[in-house]
Request: fold
Amino acid sequence: GFVSGGCVEAAAAFEALEAIACGKDRLVKYGEGSPYFDIVLPCGGGITLAIHPLRDATPLLAVLNALSQRKAAGLRYHPATQTLQTVLPLQKTGWREDAFDVRYTPCTQVIIFGRSVEAEVTATIARAAGYDVLVNDGVNPQTV
Reply:
């Protein structure tokens, strides 16, 4: 993914490698109020990035498992304890008291029935748009 559209990615990658090397979370500011005078955001604002070296993949695997079953899931990051945990699906991403919650939802799925040029074109467009596509031509249902 991207942090800012390109202007802080190299610095963020460096900070992430430093966090992994020392085994501790880092909180880094870019743009306004940052110690990096050479990184100026085009918008004139600032970005605060929390970097968490993953110590246990269990919470991420639980989210991936839920998404593969087409269910919503959530993660909660506690900066004070530097821990990550799974939580029930949340209403929205954001700060909740002393923790940051992230909501994950499965990709939109498009189900197409039929065996025609129109069905093929619709499936191609839906795939290009990043949707999960299920085509049922009456003979061989398949997820693509």
User: Anything to note?
Assistant: The chain has a mean pLDDT of 85. The chain is about 25% helix and 30% strand. Residues 20 and 125 are 40 Å apart (CA to CA).
